[in-house]
Design a protein that fits this description.
The protein contains 3 helices and 5 strands. By secondary structure, the chain is an alpha+beta fold. It has a single domain, classed as Thiol Ester Dehydrase, Chain A, CATH 3.10.129.10. The chain has a 5-stranded antiparallel sheet with strand order 1-3-4-5-2. A hairpin with an 8-residue loop joins strand 4 and strand 5.
């Protein structure tokens, strides 16, 4: 197996990104638009997918996005992202989103979680192989098991929809 396809640990590509929110991102209630939060999470997940795969990777699916609390103008938003699962050419990246008021050193508040599926691509845009995943901790193994459940659910849903289309 080539060095570039040797299994990698989640720690190899894990990242944390932070940004300060602004009025331009707010809705009429003064909260940051959910789409802005998704964009931040997708950016963090994209970095992880690129690092793990060793090259370009594109978002194939947003499997789940849970908004747990509003994000306010001026909040510091922190995204924590790591790879949960790796297949032949696709990867699931989990993202945790937390906020902190810009003017107070208060505890971080968990405001959202997301699971993105990325596909690694070559220069022509075709899917390319990615390194396997070598979980190191019980937490890594738990995340991998849960990612496998989400993947099985996505594939079953796709099969059911296709079967229904062919019946009707």
């Amino acid at each position: 197996m080539s060095d570039e396809l040797m299994a990698r640990t989640p720690a190899y590509s894990r990242i944390e990104l932070a940004a300060v929110t602004s009025r331009a991102q707010a809705n009429l209630l003064g909260n940051i638009h959910g789409g802005e939060i998704v964009k931040l999470a997708d950016s963090a997940a994209g970095v992880v997918a690129q690092r793990h795969s060793g090259g370009p990777a594109v978002t194939a699916a947003l499997d789940e996005m849970a908004f747990l609390a509003p994000v306010r103008v001026g909040d510091i938003v922190r995204t924590y992202a790591q790879i949960n699962w790796a297949g032949r050419s696709s990867m699931e990246v989990g993202v945790r989103i937390e906020t902190q008021p810009w003017d107070a050193a208060t505890e971080l508040r968990h405001v959202g979680s997301a699971y993105f599926v990325f596909v690694a691509i070559d220069g022509a845009g075709a899917a390319r192989p990615v390194p396997g995943l070598r979980p190191e901790t019980d937490e890594d193994r738990r995340r991998q098991r849960e990612a496998e459940i989400r993947r099985a659910s996505r594939l079953a849903r796709r099969r059911d929809i296709e079967a229904d289309r062919h019946q009707g």
